[in-house]
């Protein structure tokens, strides 16, 4: 089975961009409508987005399905169909709230549940396909291409939808959201068509004797969890993504309270951070090779910790600190870490019993989703708690940023030791990094 060329990778990037287009409407645009136009408590969109993350705990089961069937394409297309349906229902629910709030809220929970399940199926299967068919030397650049296209999907959809929704009306909201969902599904079907090629759809294990025999999901999950590398990487993903997401809900309030930024200025600051993320992703592709992914993951964690410590210092220093430069560097560090982690995830998916790549990828995706669900809430809660005991807001935020930096340092240490037996020295152990196998 030949590895993917760049044309196939770009086509999968289009699928990821389509996925991101639907998600950004539900997690950003609809949230804004709920809070501003409908004057609902911010808790409601928070619960809806949290539901979408929590339901991604289904990712291991979805990944197991790709292992059992031997193909990713049906899961990608089916998942996008579910995601698109969820996007339409979420928009319809938001519009419905203008006339029947209770029924609209109930439908919104159903819509966001479908969004979570659709992302789980399509996103996991897409990563499995990349992991199986992209050569190791290309995995870092491939991850960059696919994730940058997803970010482009975020940006283009948010900007275009914002213009089309002005002036706002419930009917216009439903039309725009439904159009985005339909276009995303059509793009996915056209982009994925023929990429995977012909392959098994039923008894893949019987036709390939070297694979692990068919097993129930719980048995297979237990077997994967017993693999040291898979278990270590799962914990690393959880800790690193907890640190990564904990900053999301407090960075802009920090800029407003401590540095006096207006809402427009703090939004521009967030845009600067996203620009840094893109720069960091591009930087992570300058050095290729499987082992470089490990270094980008470790180095990105350490650099993110350093940038967060600089933000902590900014909280104590106050106005006059180069906040914009610090936030841009934080974005770069986050971007480099992200590519190192995602590329490593693709590299490690086939380390262990053959035929369980999807289950491993699903396990790591679930770990990431749970960390994101908890991270934003934990960061905001830690900020509120710090403000209860510390009168100076800059000092309170500074302590929270320092705690997040400590999490990144712990994650970096975990990344460094993945695949290295207890008691061995990572710098001298005669093992191939990330695998625990003899060189």
Descriptive terms for the model:
single chain; 439 residues; mainly alpha; Growth Hormone, Chain: A; 2 domains; two-stranded antiparallel ribbon; 16 helices; 2 strands; 76% helix; 1% strand; disordered C terminus
Write the layout of secondary structure elements.
Blueprint: H1 6-37, H2 43-54, H3 59-69, H4 73-96, H5 101-133, H6 139-164, H7 170-192, H8 204-207, H9 217-225, H10 228-246, H11 251-259, H12 263-283, H13 290-317, H14 323-348, H15 357-389, H16 393-417, E1 431-432, E2 437-438
Helix pairs in contact: 1-2, 1-4, 1-5, 1-6, 1-7, 2-5, 2-15, 3-5, 3-15, 4-5, 4-7, 5-14, 5-15, 6-14, 10-14, 10-15, 10-16, 11-12, 12-14, 13-14, 13-16, 15-16
How would you describe what is shown here?
This protein has 439 residues and is mostly helical. The protein contains 16 helices and 2 strands. It has helices at 6-37, 43-54, 59-69, 73-96, 101-133, 139-164, 170-192, 204-207, 217-225, 228-246, 251-259, 263-283, 290-317, 323-348, 357-389, 393-417; strands spanning 431-432, 437-438. A two-stranded antiparallel ribbon has the order 1-2. The longest helix is centred in the N-terminal third of the chain and has 33 residues, at 101-133. The protein is globular. It starts with 5 loop residues before the first helix and ends with a strand.
């Amino acid at each position: 089975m030949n590895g993917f060329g760049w044309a196939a990778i770009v086509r999968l990037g289009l699928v990821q961009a389509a996925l991101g287009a639907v998600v950004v409407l539900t997690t950003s645009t609809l949230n804004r409508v709920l809070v501003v136009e409908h004057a609902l408590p911010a808790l409601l969109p928070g619960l809806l987005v949290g539901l979408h993350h929590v339901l991604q705990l289904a990712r291991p089961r979805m990944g197991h399905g790709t292992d059992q069937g031997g193909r990713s394409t049906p899961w990608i297309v089916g998942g996008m169909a579910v995601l698109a349906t969820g996007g339409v229902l979420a928009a319809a629910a938001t519009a419905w709230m203008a006339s029947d709030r209770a029924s609209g809220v109930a439908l919104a929970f159903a819509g966001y549940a479908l969004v979570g399940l659709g992302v789980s199926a399509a996103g996991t299967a897409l990563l499995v396909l990349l992991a199986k068919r992209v050569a190791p030397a290309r995995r870092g650049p491939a991850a960059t291409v696919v994730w940058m296209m997803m970010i482009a999907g975020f940006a283009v959809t948010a900007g275009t939808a914002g213009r089309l929704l002005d002036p706002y009306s419930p009917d216009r909201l439903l039309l725009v959201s439904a159009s985005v969902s339909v276009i995303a599904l059509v793009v996915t079907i056209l982009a994925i068509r023929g990429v995977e090629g012909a392959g098994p759809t039923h008894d893949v294990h019987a036709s390939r004797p070297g694979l692990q025999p068919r097993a129930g999901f719980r048995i297979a999950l237990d077997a994967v969890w017993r693999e040291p590398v898979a278990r270590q990487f799962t914990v690393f993903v959880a800790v690193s993504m907890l640190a990564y997401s904990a900053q999301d809900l407090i960075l802009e309030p920090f800029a407003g309270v401590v540095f006096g930024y207006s809402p427009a200025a703090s939004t521009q600051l967030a845009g600067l951070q996203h620009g840094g993320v893109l720069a960091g992703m591009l930087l992570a592709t300058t050095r290729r090779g499987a082992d470089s992914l490990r270094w980008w993951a470790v180095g990105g964690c350490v650099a993110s910790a350093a940038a967060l410590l600089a933000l902590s210092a900014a909280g104590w220093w106050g106005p006059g600190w180069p906040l914009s430069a610090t936030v841009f560097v934080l974005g770069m560090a986050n971007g480099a870490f992200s590519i190192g982690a995602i590329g490593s995830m693709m590299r490690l998916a086939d380390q262990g019993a053959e035929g369980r790549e999807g289950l491993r990828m699903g396990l790591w995706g679930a770990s990431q989703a749970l960390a994101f669900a908890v991270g934003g809430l934990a960061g905001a809660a830690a900020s509120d708690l710090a403000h209860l005991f510390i009168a100076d807001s800059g000092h309170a935020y500074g302590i929270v940023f320092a705690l997040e930096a400590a999490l990144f340092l712990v994650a970096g240490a975990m990344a460094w030791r993945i695949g290295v037996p207890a008691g061995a020295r990572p710098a001298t152990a005669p093992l191939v990094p990330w695998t625990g196998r003899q060189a």
